[in-house]
Amino acid sequence: MAGTGGLTALQRSVLERVAPRLPSQSLVVALSGGADSAVCAWSAVAAGRSVRAVTVDHGLPVSGPLVEAARNVAAALGIEHRVVAAPSDDDSEAGLRAARYLALEAEAAPGEVLLSGHTSDDQAETVLGNLVRGSGGSGLAGIPVERAPWLRPQLEVSRAEIRQVAAELGLPFADDPSNLDVSLRRNELRHEVIPLLEERFGPSVRERLARAGAFLAADDAELERRALGVPLRMGDDGVRVPAASLVTLPLPVAARVARRALRAVLSPYPGGRRDVESVLDVAAGAAERLSVSGDNIAAREGPWVAIYRAGDPEPLDALTLPVPGSARFGAWLVEATPLPGSPVPALLGRRFALVTPGGGPLTLRAAGAGDTVAMTEGSKDVAEALREAGVPPRLRRRWPVVERDGKIIWLVSVRAAADAAPRKADTLLLTAREVG
């Protein structure tokens, strides 16, 4: 371990607990200017890792001294430092935290790991705060040690130890005065509730709360592992979840699947308890569609529960489908491949179509009102064909068709036009698949 010579016993103890958690990748420390993140940066440097620091400036009255302290800490440690602005219309604790995380994650390069300086005290406060709020297992598990791209290597180190190490090292940190504002629940827990519990039940309350969070985190990880086994179908129009999984899985697992789907739509938030219940109710058939947070809808669509934004989706522009080649249209990737050789029987496939090559360029566009596709006798209204195929109404206005010379030759994944079938040796294969 680099840089351990001449350390005090406490400095060595902290480094021995933090360094093994640090990966070999390049690290970015979220340097707030406070003691916790300053020691986190020092540990990364002392452990011999490649590290740089980023500070978020919210432009608040308290921001200036903290940004200056962060600059001084980075200079003292000899690491690269960058300040990024992240003003927020929501100056609540949650709003600023969301703006801060977005800014930091945008700053990290691919492959870099973001470090935060959270301590075991932060863990204890989070577990207790979530308990008071009525959270489930995931909330009571507290702050995760790792959730890409974030790593919190100091969660087993107390705030008192961190502050003492920062003082011993002479790091020029500054305290955030907002941390003394007990009108904020986090600070009320820190300065009033937990000290009262320690007075009544002993000084190890913080340690026991953090330990309880660690036990619950292990249980939560196993439930999350099972939930991750359920595939989600992502698209630019929302996300779909297999309804059967939500109905048949144990409730703790199904709820996590629902939260994962909600997070894909509401990122970075996984929705609240009522949102999860709405998704599960739709899956169970208690309702065809229900509202969820953020002006979104959870609705049953065949074997799926779809979560999507309410209102009409944005229209998609028509584009040319190259031959040979492929084109992305909404949630679909459509490909055209020439197949020279013997005549091939006409196959009116769902995921593919065989059509006669030649003629004008192929156009990929959305189905429109009045569109028809040629049948062996007469024609079929496209809207009716989509309905018969079980395509949900909200998707029909964005459903792709392949057109040539002003005529639809393939209603993608539903029906090929009868008069587009191959009549000579060469064949054009059209295929399509949904992509996330």
CATH fold descriptor of the largest domain: Rossmann fold
The CATH fourth-level homologous superfamily of the largest domain:
HUPs
Number of domains: 3
Give the helix proportion (percent range). 25-40%
**Biggest β-sheet, characterized?**
6 strands, mixed
Please count the helical segments: 14
Corresponding CATH architecture of the largest domain: 3-Layer(aba) Sandwich
Q: What is the structural class?
A: alpha+beta
Q: How large is the radius of gyration?
A: 28 Å
Q: In what order do the strands lie side by side in the largest sheet?
A: 3-2-1-4-6-5
Number of strands: 22
Unreliable segments of 5+ consecutive residues: 345-349
How far apart, in Å, are the first and last alpha carbons?
43 Å
SS strand fraction = 15-25%
What is the class of the largest domain in the CATH system? Alpha Beta
Mean pLDDT reading: 90
Shape: elongated
